[in-house]
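Appendix B, Record 12. Input sequence as logged:
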Amino acid sequence: MHPDGVDVIVIHSVSAVEVAPDDPFNRGAILKIFCGYGVSSHYLIERDGTTLRLVPEEMKAWHAGGSIMPEPDGRRMVNEFSIGIELAGPGPGGFAELQYHRCAVLCADIERRNGRRFAYVGHEEIAGELAVSLGLRPAAKTDPGSAFDWQEFFGLLAALR
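Logged structural output:
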């Protein structure tokens, strides 16, 4: 972990549509993808709101890959100072309301336990074209994408703080 501690939460989305097109949010298929690619995240929030802790927060998870925080921060290797939250989706119509609620509750709890507010970024913000142009990664990430309603998430988080 970063010597100054964890201060960023990265929001991701995941589906297994390529390996399980008839059941793209199947937990087993999603976890198999993580294992197959050697990646991990601290949490997975399923479509029904079920929240699974996959990696303890005090351990580094491999969810951000080659990455750089947006300016003015500019720190690289975001895994070192972040917590990764994967949301199964998006599904038809985007992410489920229960996912937004559970994500906000989880983030408010993380902030409370750490005694400070965190910065929030989407995977595409830290592992997008800038990271590619800097040679940090071979291809840009696009999740959680435009289907994730940041305004709704931040509204729920503000109400819980």
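The chain has five helices and five strands.
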